[in-house]
Specification:
With 218 residues, this protein is an alpha/beta fold. Helix content is 39%, strand content 20%. It has a 7-stranded mixed beta sheet, sandwiched between helices. Helix 4 links the parallel strand 1 and strand 2. Helix 3 packs parallel to helix 4. The chain starts with 7 loop residues before the first helix and ends with a strand. The protein binds 3,4-dihydroxybenzoic acid and magnesium ion.
């Protein structure tokens, strides 16, 4: 996958600014063995971690856990009393992530909820509201995840979406032949909604996959 391409420049950046813990490296290696290298890159993990720290985020919701890689990057920046709730539909991925999270120093600040997040999000109470929502699950579902986020996100809170370039297709005027139309329409709509300056201040960071960061206005 693109996010794991290794150029000398990327290697330089990673070594200097985004060194992984042994556990993070192990997660990446295990995912690679299982042909599941669709997690964020180390530098994207570091960016997410810095967003958590910069925004003073206490309550994180992640949609799409995979192996727990991005969750562990983000959880490391949570303040005392902060919490990350992560949703994963695949039982295999959830089992993998549960094990890695349990071995991490952040196990007490992470809750993994297994199941379809579209429903599970709505049956999970977030009494303290939500400061940051990281969406990295099935792409056709992004607009519905945003609907949910808008009900709970605090003013000044962040919506972060991965893969918002939709594998290089989102800038086309019509969905390319081999692209799933529902998915393409969903990502177009998601990006369009976050570009609404009456509700958000936002930017798609031009990472390999595109990562949109949006601040919810009051
Ligand atoms: C895919 C999904 C991702 O979230 C990602 O970052 C890269 C690829 C995929 O479904 O192929
Ligand atoms: Mg992704």
């Amino acid at each position: 996958m693109r996010s794991n391409d290794q150029s000398p420049m990327q290697d330089y950046i990673r070594t200097l600014y985004a060194p992984e813990s042994d556990l993070l490296r192990e997660i990446r290696e295990v995912l690679a063995e299982r042909r599941l290298s669709i997690h964020v890159s180390p530098e994207e993990g570091k960016l997410l971690q810095m967003l958590v720290r910069l925004s003073g985020t206490k309550q994180i919701v992640e949609i799409g856990t995979l192996g727990g890689y991005s969750a562990l990057w983000m959880a490391a920046a949570l303040p005392e009393g902060g919490h990350l709730t992560t949703f994963e539909r695949s039982a295999n991925h959830a089992a993998l992530a549960r094990d890695f999270i349990a071995r991490s120093p952040y196990k007490d600040r992470i809750t993994l909820i297994e199941g379809d997040a579209h429903a599970a999000l709505r049956s999970t109470p977030f009494a303290q509201g939500v400061d940051l929502v990281f969406i990295d699950a099935e792409k056709a579902g992004y607009p519905d995840y945003l609907d949910w986020a808008e009900t709970l996100l605090k003013p000044g809170g962040l919506v972060v979406g991965d893969n918002t370039k939709l594998f290089g297709t989102v800038c086309e005027e019509t969905p390319p032949a081999k692209t799933d139309e529902e998915m393409w329409n969903a990502m177009r709509a998601f990006n369009q909604r976050l570009a609404d300056t009456s509700k958000y201040e936002a930017l798609m960071l031009p990472t390999g996959e595109g990562m949109t960061v949006a601040i919810r206005k009051p």
